[in-house]
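pasting for ref
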Amino acid sequence: MTRKFRMLLLGAASLVTLAFAGVASAAFNPTLAIGHTPPTAGSTTTSFRLTVPRDDDALFKASFYVPAGYTATLGQAPGTQIGTVAAQVQVREPIAGAVLPLTGTVVVTDQATVAAQVGPCTGTTTHAAYWVLVLQAAGQELRVPMVIDPAPAPLAAVASYVLAVCLPSPHIPVAAGGATFGAKLIQAQLNLNNVLRAPASGGTYRWHVVTTPWPNGPGMPNAAGTVTAQGTAALPGAISVSAKSKKRVLTITGRLTEGGQGIGARTVTLRVGTKNYSVRTNASGTFRKVVRIAKGSRVTIRATAAVPSRTGACTATSPFAPRPCVSDTSQFFTAMRSIVARVR
């Protein structure tokens, strides 16, 4: 182990408030959040973030179902980078309970390279495309295979593609196929570029993830503990802004929306000329700010809002019943709009 890596773990351990415990977990409640950049119909940068609470059981398998209407560009040459990944894992060694940040890339690979890992995960080594998540942490490298296929015909109404990934158990030695450092995933976000294209028309698109945990100890994956989670992308995510001037006083108004619906209780940053102001949206997503302009006949106004993901209970019927749906999360996105206003 490198000195740099040990120092990183020591720093992470100082942030731990609950030490790793080998007791049985009472829950497995993952969440799935979706983001697009820009957050518009037809966007070609797609992000999806899977979070598993740190005190829950470890994740074995996740199958992500991309909504119907999305298209995919596959067939890139092995070695092509198609995205990035950022993750956090909780480790058992050398410092139990430490949370380790990982960053890396999503790279295209081939069947021969990952067949040994993919086969036990999906039950077959034949897939439409093969990727590998190449993760780095202070000189240490972890490689996690991932595959993508068209969604099965019975799910064609709700899904266009399915992506699958499996993780090793944190409860057995590496020599027996266990996870390096006894790592248990807490969160991972994949950002894919020019691979998945959002539908050409606006609307609300519902993603699904089917997740299976490991038991809290040596053993086979806990198939009976399989649950689902949903994540919605309401496109477009947008902000509007306009301004009226009277006696050198600008009244700036606008609205923050997703899928045409207003988003309340969110902060909007207004940059008026060289000054910044913060306002909050009301229940319908609208905002208003009055600003006096000392000089000049025109001023640039830029409105920006960073909307976080928002998790609640599942309200839509799951196509994977009777497996329980444990969460439904609205998208995260950043919206920006600039105008030039005349000052009178």
